[in-house]
Amino acid sequence: MKFDTIVAAATPPGTGGIGIVRISGPAAAAIAGQLVGALPAPRQAHCRTFCNAAGEAIDSGMVLYFPAPNSFTGEDVVELQGHGGLVPIAMIVDAAVAAGARPAAPGEFTQRAFLNDKLDLTQAEAVADLIGSGTAQAARAALRSLSGEFSQRITAIAEEVERLRLYVEAAIDFPEEEVDFLSDEELHATIERAAATFATLVGQAAVGRVLRDGYRVVIVGKPNAGKSSLMNRLSGEDTAIVTEVAGTTRDILREQIDIDGLAVELVDTAGLRDDPDRIEAEGIRRAREALASADAALWIQDASEHGDDDSRAALPTDLLDIPVLIVRNKIDLTSEGAGRDPQDDNKISVSANTGAGLDELRAQIGQLAGYKNLGEQTITARRRHVDALRRAEQHFVAGCRALHEERAGEVFAEELRLAHQALGEITGATSSDDLLGRIFSEFCIGK
Ligand SMILES: Nc1nc2c(ncn2[C@@H]2O[C@H](COP(=O)(O)OP(=O)(O)OP(=O)(O)O)[C@@H](O)[C@H]2O)c(=O)[nH]1
Ligand SMILES: [Mg+2]
To answer: Which of 218, 224, 284, 358 to mutate to test the pocket of ligand 1 (most atoms within 8 A of CB)?
Structure first.
């Protein structure tokens, strides 16, 4: 495949000790040569003065040359490491463009790495996931995906599916060989193993998905129930103002917490009530808006307030579409015990003041998110991976049913072909240009 030569700043815009400009493509060495003179030997750092087209010095720093194919993109790559400031970096990029390079589109370096078989699609996505990871656990999981662990698991099941299909197709095509696949015990054992692998993979990918995307939990309730106190206590920060005056919080406040590696964004809101003043009314509008993009809500109740209805039927209608934990707060003022309600899994008693019940609350939020710490097995995954895996599993299950119940070998083979195709979408073996365009456009420029 033939490409033009691209250039972009690889370090984020802003000031820093070093700013890196990366040039990749067949003319990378020639273009960089116009800026810095003779290139250093491959993979050796040398100091050079960087000049523009007029021959004026614009910066000085290290030059690194990575000839194809031993580079991130698989093409000739030159890295210019100058001083980290917006203006010097822009001047180096401009000089490279004047020398014949094209400014890179978002994700174009990684896209080239994918197209040159340096990375498969899940690995390319893991690059972005590692950069954007919200917790150390998410970063480690992204690194595992980047090293190819997720791809290897997908490729292994895809190969198993393909082997099963070819075996059954051969048996159908050459009946004279008299391979009776229907009573072949080894075939059935292999099918069972593959079914178990599918179930494990779907579970791992679902966990990897929340780990990557994080989980947004909105804290709502009546004024003074202790929403802000609870957010401060869970996050260990004093972000939200707490007073005994009902209607203290008016704007939306956010804090990120780490629940066993899962990045959870807590959103504190204005108390919902019927006769608010104008500022509070705007706060309530924002609270409702926050609910619309939430994964789950905590409905905070003041347990010391008598006559507060804690049944689910009493919840505001805004909470109908998302999972809700009913959190009974201020139990230090009552005789209520801390922790989960034995009658209702999604009701929990806590005290924001003493911290009682908060470990159970954290665990319950993790459970609601469908998250568990899978240790070394944790990879990051995206919604599209989970969707494709589920589709592959459905085809596999449908094929197996046809084989077992109707003895329909052709249907089995066709469903397995579709399962294999869905698995190929994950690693990029069978992806459309459209999908690729969408994935790489989400990257930042220079990656
Ligand atoms: N005893 C006790 N008091 C609490 C507890 N949680 C909060 N409070 C008190 O309840 C009052 C209201 O707390 P906030 O955290 O401001 O309540 P809020 O729900 O954010 O209130 P608004 O922002 O006004 O809607 C404060 O006086 C807190 O100190 C608790 O667990 N126990
Ligand atoms: Mg508040």
So the answer is: 224
Residues framing ligand 1 (Cβ under 6 A): 221, 223-229, 242-244, 246-249, 270-271, 329-330, 332-333, 351-353
The pTM assigned to this predicted structure is 0.79
- Region of 117 please: left (phi>0), alpha (psi -120 to 50) or beta: left
Q: State the Cα–Cα distance between residues 65 and 74, nearest whole angstrom.
A: 13
Residues in the 5 Å CB sphere of ion ligand 2: 227-228, 248-249
Mind listing the pLDDT tens digit for each residue in 325-347?
Answer: 999 999 999 999 999 999 998 99
Q: How many CB atoms lie within 10 A of CB 370?
A: 14
Q: What structural domains and CATH numbers belong to the chain?
A: 6-119 (3.30.1360.120), 127-210+379-428 (1.20.120.430), 215-368 (3.40.50.300)
DSSP bridge partners of 8: 22
The burial class, CB within 10 Å (0-12 / 13-18 / 19+), for 324 is buried
Beta bridge partners of 49: 60
Whose structure tokens read 């159970």? 360
* Residues 349-358: contacts with CB under 8 Å, at least 24 apart: 349/303, 350/230, 352/226, 352/229, 352/230, 352/232, 352/233, 353/229, 353/233, 355/233, 356/331, 356/332, 357/331, 358/233, 358/234
What is the average pLDDT across 251-265?
94
| Nearest ligand atom owner, CA of 352 | 1
